UniProtKB/TrEMBL annotation:
Pfam families registered for this protein in UniProt: PP-binding (PF00550)
Source organism: Pendulispora rubella
Keywords, ordered alphabetically: Phosphopantetheine, Phosphoprotein
Domain of life according to the entry: Bacteria
Record carries keyword Phosphoprotein: yes
Protein name: Acyl carrier protein
Organismal lineage: Bacteria, Pseudomonadati, Myxococcota, Myxococcia, Myxococcales
Record bears the keyword Phosphoprotein: yes
Domain Carrier: 16-77
């Protein structure tokens, strides 16, 4: 069974790919916070998407990445491509 891509995985990849905006706490309740409010613009999300593709061995279309607005929606997209399901994002 494929391991679910979790919120902790996403935060690690975001930090490695694009860093963190000053004053943004990624340890807070960010699942439904817009990526723009977290300081991540489209280029940062594309780079994050590329890192996720390498790590998870999935293919995410640029158009699909452009549509995700929150960590929850990105987790859903990644796990959908991996064939994993989850009761709620961020579950271990």
């Amino acid at each position: 069974m494929t391991k679910e891509f979790t919120l902790e995985d996403l935060k690690r990849v975001l930090l490695a790919s694009a860093g963190a905006a000053e004053g943004v706490d990624l340890n807070g309740n960010i699942l439904d916070t817009d990526f723009a409010d977290l300081g991540y613009e489209s280029v940062a999300l594309l780079e994050t998407g590329r890192q996720i593709e390498l790590e998870c061995r999935v293919s995410l279309e640029d158009g699909a990445l452009a549509q995700v607005r929150t960590p929850r929606s990105l987790l859903h997209l990644v796990n959908q491509h991996r064939g994993t399901t989850h009761a709620h994002a961020g579950a271990p």
